[in-house]
Amino acid sequence: MNAWLLPGVPAVAGAALAVAGRRADRAAPALGALAAAVTVALAVAAAVTRPAGTVRLVGGFASGLAVDGLSAALAVTVAVAAFAVLLFATGDRPGAEARFTGLMLIFTAAMLLTVTATDLLLLLMGWEVMGAMSYALIGFWWRDPGRVRAGGLAFVTTRAGDLGLYAAAGFAVAGAGGLELAGLAGAARPWRDLAAAGIVLAALGKSAQLPFSFWLSRAMAGPSPVSALLHSATMVAAGAYLLLRVQPLLAATGWAATLVAWAGALTALALGLVALAQRDLKQLLAASTCAQIGFLVLAAGAAAISAGAAHLAAHAAVKSLLFLCAGAWLATLGTESLAALRGAARRDRLAGLAFAAGALSLAGIPPLALWVTKGAVLTAVTPLSLPLYGVALAASLTAAAYSARALLILWARPAPGAPAGPPRDRRAGAAPLPGSPPRLRARGISPAGRVSLAGLALGALGFGAVALPPVADAWSRLTGSPPRGEFVSPAELAVSAVLALAVLAAVAVRRHARPAPAAPPAVRHGDARPDAVRHGDARRAGRHRGDRAGAVRRGRTGGGTAGGGWQAGRYGRYGRYGRRALGEWLWLERAAVAVAWRPLPAVARALAWVDDRVIDGAVRGVARAAVAVARVSGREGEGVLDGVVRGVAGGVAWLGGVARRPQTGQAHTYFAQAAVALVVLAVVIGAVGAACSP
Amino acid sequence: MLSVAIFLPLAAACVLAALPRLGASAARAVWILVSAAVLGLAAAMWAGYPGGVAYEQRLRWIPSLGAGYHVGVDGMSLPLVALTALLFLVCAVYTGRDTPRMPAYAAFFLFLEAVSLGLFAALDLLLFFVFFDLSIVGMYFVIVGWGHGDRARSALRFFLYTFLGSLALLLGFIGLFLGGGTFDLVELAARPPFRAEPGIAGLVLLAVGIGFAVKTPVVPVHTWLPPAHTDAPAAGSAILAGILLKMGAYGLARVALPVLPGAWQRHAWVVIAIGVVSVVYGAFVALAQRDLKRLIAYTSVNHMGYIVLALGAAGLAAGDERARDLAVTGAVTQMVSHGLVTGALFLLAGVVWDRAHDYDLTRLGGLAGPAPVLTALTAVAAFASLGLPGLSGFIAEFQIFAGVIGTGIPGAAVAGAIAVAGVLVTAALFLRVLQRAFLGGPGELTARFTDVRPRELLAVAPLLALSLAVGIAPRPLLDLVEPAAAAVVTLVSR
After folding, report:
1. Which residues, 6+ apart, have CB-to-CB distance to B131 below 8 Å?
2. CA nearest neighbour of B230 among B304, B296, B156
3. What is the tens place of the pLDDT at every residue in B331-362?
4. In which compartments does the protein localize (chain A) (predicted)?
5. How many whole angstroms separate alpha carbon B335 and alpha carbon B70?
6. What DSSP string runs through B330-354?
7. pTM of structure
8. What is the helix, strand, coil percentage profile of chain B, to 5?
């Protein structure tokens, strides 16, 4: 097959839908699912036939696509995740379906281009288009300024990292004489180190690793299927993929691999703790995404390509599943607050069971997928550094804890007195304006959505088969990792399993020991601020209070009420601060705003002032002086002006004399005439200007 | 064929000027037909372009000065000739029948078209200068006659500022003549003057550089640009930004680099510094603007800064030659891309003015509601301008960054890395425009908006479609530009 078909088909289908606009709204969900199904077929075909294609885009540099083992694994993962999400979305109806489906398909195509590109130019093209699509999808409900701003924050933050990739392309030309990814490791110093630094920066930004994690928290503002795709196989996965892809470069520099490994491990631990402190299901899942992608980044640093690819694929299935479930509850219950979702999993058994499969896998419970793949990453880390291993192991404990917490809340018995559903008025009323979120749905998940959930749940459960030695060998061969010891060590798996089960049990015992909380406040009117002001449910805040600002700002999470397993007040002062820091995503966004976002417009305003007052002021001053001189010379009579002209002419004549070229002896008169003509023209224009001015 | 393309619009302009009583529809029809014919000629020239300097024509004009009517196009000027033809046609389509004094308006645009085509085709410095100055005169009358706001003042300022710049340019050209004994560009490039006198070459480069710097414009001689744009009619702004600004950058690449290679090499760092400052400064000042048109005007300073940076890097004779070829190719691509994208942005700003009679971003909001197509077009143009891959700006800027950094000279790598940051600021500022004016809740003036009319769509869509074409399949353009860029690099490396 032709390699260009793989990104080409979804890109063209998406562009056609987006251009068709409202006319295609009715057919768009089905067409989108169909295009995604075709893409899955293409990805599988590409994985089998391993096509490649080259093209010359700029200069003499070769660009191209190629599907090697790593790309094959990624391409199939991306295509399957996109298909599952778009299949689910056929029943989700976010409004403006053609635009939505079109953007999702282009988003997928950009990711497919990124994972198959063999050079920095095509990679950067896919990479940046993906960022732009994430902007358009996060801000999809454009009437809400908060959502648009969240999209802008995601784009600008990830683009800040992308600058590294732009610069890395230049460093690659300087050091390796070309843009091929494969040639980077052999580039001359210091260009090799600079290129590695640029690529690491871009990857950490895209993957929402520390210190860029905050944009992912805001990225929840988009429709739920967007989160399901953005958090699983695309966007955040792209950074980790790039690091896996350029692992030889990281290793060659001598420092980048270590840096990347630590960045990943620390993100996994810190954002795991952040996830533990969230009171909102989607925020919990978002923080968990950062943490899980941290394991991928760690794998890249530890040169565990196969383990990283396996974790990426398994996590994609798990996380898209969890986000689709969260989205389904948001669409029917109107909330994503954990407290208000208490018992939600019991309402729809399929969604509840699918969520349980995903959450148990995320917790690392044997024999589910992430237990194996995370174990494989840890196996690769063990020989590298004990402290690194310790951090990573602690991070995997937090994963077990936050997954267990979410699972236990969602499967808990509903609190006595809690209403059975959202207020009826949120399902009725006038149709929302275009560009706003749709009304709450009365019906549950559509049949297509159920198929999608069931399929993803099978993935979340079944990918654990990679623990079996034959499968593990096949996977390692597929993803082309150098055969460096075993894929996953049994000892590591045993330790992980015991620890995960212990944490699960501990969380369960803790929750059981406490009395069930009273009916959650979020579903009651007038008392809903803590979660209503979260952007996930901004619409309600806006409608009940006309409080747009409230919808924009993310609510402060201080003051424990129901639902949290980690109530404030039981800790000391520092503990309270720590908890708030975790709840607020370590104040990363505030820090970024204070360090970068606020000062930049201030600098811009200062420069604009300089531009108006100083630079332009100088020009105006010169102009005024010239006018004054003209007035003076006017008083002196025509003689002065004539003298100036004669002086100019004389000067030019003198220049002509200097040149001593007798054959052009008449030149000076031409110049003098030209100068006079120009002055006359200037005077005429000036007169017209004066006549026209009021 | 080239001369026909230059003089056909001039003849049409004379006819229209002679018939001021002609009806608006008839005048517009003549304008569109003539522009379309010129575009057809440009397309034919592109299709039949054999390489090297083609469609050359040489007539005696002022033999005692060694100045003649010498025109021709190569891979650097042909894309700009085609861009000129397209942009003028698009402006004709965009202009509504209700424009006051339509015959005169059409005549001035046709005059400007002839002048612009002539400038890009000119291979003689005196001819080049005549066209350079006439473009200023033509644009002055367009702003003063059909602008809005404080148009007389802005137009006068535009005129005097760029006219003073052109006087410096004339001085420089005279210097070149005195050194080389001719005004013919091809001969001057073949035997660069002042090889033995670096001091004089530097002074001549200063004069030429000032002339082109004002027109480009670069910081700090850019302050004529924002008021001229703000008060010009939409089509005038599109031509001013899309075509007239290119004259400065094109002049640098066409005259300064090949004719003064030694001086350019010696002062390459100054040029690079000016380019980097323009990139960063233009982006930041644009970020602070509330007026949509001023904002776009400052992004022009940013975008033209990339061109100046690339041309400066071309003068680093010690740098890798392939990388410098890439940078100059990027610079020419950026000229074309900026013409397409900023032309589209100014026409879209014209739509905003037509509905709201205001450019104040803070008074707009939620335009996606009443005007979804306008919003979609603006979003595409904004993303093209901020350098999103798949659109032309990315291809241009990527080549400039990779070329400048890829020279392998540490200073150039630092300059390139600083310039890369401009991409982030432009991203932030265009997202701010979309957020303020087009998305979110309705603003004070939103109720006045209707979506784009067919003629507006017909004018803007081709520009964006071409930007997309260049962004996805740049080869047809780059195949043309690359040999010419390599030739310029060879000339400047002597």
Report:
1. B115, B116, B118, B119, B122
2. B296
3. 999 999 999 999 999 999 999 999 998 898 88
4. Endomembrane system; Membrane
5. 23
6. HHHHHHHHHHHHHHHHHHHHHHHHH
7. 0.88
8. 75, 5, 20
Q: Are residues A644 and A694 in the same domain?
A: yes
Residues of B in contact with A661 (CB under 8 A): 178, 181
What chain B residue is nearest to A148 in terms of C-alpha separation? B435
Pairwise CB contact (< 8 Å): B181 & A664:
yes
A613 interfaces chain B, CB cutoff of 8 Å: no
Length of chain A: 694
A627 and A672 both lie in a single domain: no
Residue A419 C-beta-side C-alpha neighbours within 13 Å: 13
* Structure confidence by residue, pLDDT tens digits, A249-294: 999 998 999 999 999 999 999 999 988 888 888 889 999 999 999 9
Q: Which of A264-268, A416-420, A544-548 has the lowest mean pLDDT?
A: A544-548
What token pair was written down for B403?
A: 């070329």
- A604 touches B at CB < 8 Å: yes
Range of the domain at A690: 637-694
In sequence order, what E strands does B47-154 have? 54-62, 67-73
Beta-carbon neighbour count of residue A662 at 10 Å?
A: 6
**Closest partner CB to A148 (pick from B323, B394, B440):** B440
A655 interaction partners in chain B (CB closer than 8 Å): 174, 178
Which of B411, B348, B339 has the alpha carbon at shortest distance from B378? B348
Alpha-carbon span B429 to B365, nearest angstrom: 16
Reduce the DSSP state of residue B62 to 3 states and report it.
strand
Q: In this predicted structure, what is the pLDDT of residue A104? A: 93
| Alpha carbon of A59: minimum distance to chain B alpha carbons (Å) | 6
CB A106 within 8 A of CB A14: yes
CB contact under 8 A, B435 and A145: yes
Question: CB–CB of A279/A225 below 8 Å?
Answer: no
Residue A674 is assigned to a structural domain of this protein: yes
Task: Determine, for residues B160 and A655 on separate chains, whether the beta-carbon distance falls below 8 Å.
Answer: no
Name every chain B residue with its beta carbon within 8 A of the beta carbon of A175. Answer: 408
Using the Cβ of A673 and the Cβ atoms of chain B, whether some distance falls under 8 Å is answered with no
Joined together, the tokens standing for residue A259 give 């840096």
Identify which of A461, A236, A251, A435 has the alpha carbon closest to the alpha carbon of residue A355.
Answer: A461
User: Does the CB of A655 have a partner CB in chain B at under 8 Å?
Assistant: yes
Task: Please indicate whether, in this complex, the C-beta atoms of A685 and B159 are within 8 angstroms of each other.
Answer: yes
Predicted local distance difference test score (pLDDT) of residue A475: 83
- Decide if A39 contacts A83 (C-beta within 8 A): yes
What confidence score (pLDDT) does residue A563 get? 38
A662 within some domain? yes
Q: Which of residues 71 through 130 in chain B touch A, CB cutoff 8 A?
A: none
Of the listed ranges A659-668, B16-25, B316-325, the least confidently predicted one is: A659-668
Chain B residue with the nearest C-alpha to that of A178: B406
CB contact under 8 A, B144 and A174: no
Nearest CB among A142, A149, A174 relative to B413 is that of: A174
Check pLDDT > 60 for residue A641.
no
Of A3, A94, A68, A69, the residue nearest A42 (C-alpha):
A3
Nearest residue in A to B221, CA atom: A615
> Does residue A538 contact residue A144 with C-beta atoms inside 8 Å?
yes
Complex ipTM: 0.92
Tell whether B143 is within 8 A of chain A (Cβ): no
Instruction: Report A:104-123 residues touching B (Cβ under 8 A).
Output: 121
Contact A685 B423 (CB under 8 A): no
A108 occurs within a structural domain: no
Q: Above 50 in pLDDT, residue A494? A: yes
Residue A366 lies inside a defined structural domain of this protein = no
Closest CA to A596 of A126, A247, A159, A221: A159
Task: Look at chain A and report how many structural domains it folds into.
Answer: 2
Residue A666 pLDDT more than 80? Answer: no
**pLDDT score recorded for residue B443:** 87
Q: Do A620 and A643 share a domain, yes or no?
A: no
